[in-house]
Specification:
With about 140 residues, the chain is mostly helical. The protein contains five helices and no strands. Helix 1 (about 10-20) runs antiparallel to helix 3 (about 60-70) and helix 2 packs parallel to helix 5 (about 90-135). It is elongated, with a radius of gyration of 22 Å.
């Protein structure tokens, strides 16, 4: 079956059906992929999931489809997905929110340190310019 002609709505329904079938382990892996997608939709890495010489798992194939499909999904589908996942599994939704908040805090910390580093560099440059001007 050729899936390239499916609408985002149909793809969304497939993903919801798959989520219902995921084991706890698969839901954990999916959460990591989902967080990546929410933060940087064009940069989804499937950590540890590779297409080896053995037959790929069904979960791997589904995540590969999600990665391809989600690139063209409209923003409102992103919100609907999170709402639907919360509805289906409130524990998953809570963990997703906690992990997403933690990841966003890490990003904020890194950005703050980068800004501070730039400001320190500018201060050092200003001091050097002042010393050079006095000479």
């Amino acid at each position: 079956m050729n899936h390239s002609h499916l609408s985002p709505e149909v793809e969304f329904r497939y993903l919801i059906t798959w989520f219902r079938e995921f084991s706890e382990y698969e839901r954990s892996d999916f959460m990591e992929i989902l967080i990546q997608w929410l933060l940087k939709p064009n940069e989804i890495y499937m950590n540890g999931m590779t297409e080896s010489s053995q037959k790929p798992t069904i979960f791997y194939c589904r995540m590969k489809l999600f990665k391809e499909w989600s690139l063209k999904w409209p923003d409102q589908l992103r919100s609907r997905l999170i709402d639907k996942l919360n509805e289906l599994d409130s524990d998953f939704g809570q963990k997703l929110n906690e992990n997403l908040e933690a990841r966003l805090e890490q990003v904020d910390d890194v950005q703050s340190k980068e800004v501070e580093s730039i400001q320190n560099g500018m201060t050092e440059l200003t001091v050097e310019q002042a010393v050079a001007a006095e000479e």
